[in-house]
Amino acid sequence: MWADRGRTLPGRHDPEWIRLTAPQVKRGQFSALRDPLRDGR
């Protein structure tokens, strides 16, 4: 009955949950800032 109503069930694949918990930032999307003076900025 829960599945018929579109509710999630333990142990079942849930595409919406996977989408919501996916990382928002992909690896390599941002580069690291270089600090040539190494002054902590």
Describe this structure in words.
The longest helix is centred in the middle third of the chain and has 7 residues. The chain contains 1 helix and no strands. It is rod-shaped, with a radius of gyration of 20 Å. With 41 residues, it is mostly helical.
Task: Give me the secondary-structure topology.
Elements: H1 15-21
Quickly give the structural class: mainly alpha
Strand element count: 0
Span between N and C termini?
56 Å
Percent of residues in helices comes to 10-25%
Nutshell version of this structure?
Helix content is 17%, strand content 0%. It is mostly helical and 41 residues long. The mean pLDDT is 76.
Notable characteristics:
mainly alpha; rod-shaped; 1 helix; 41 residues; 17% helix
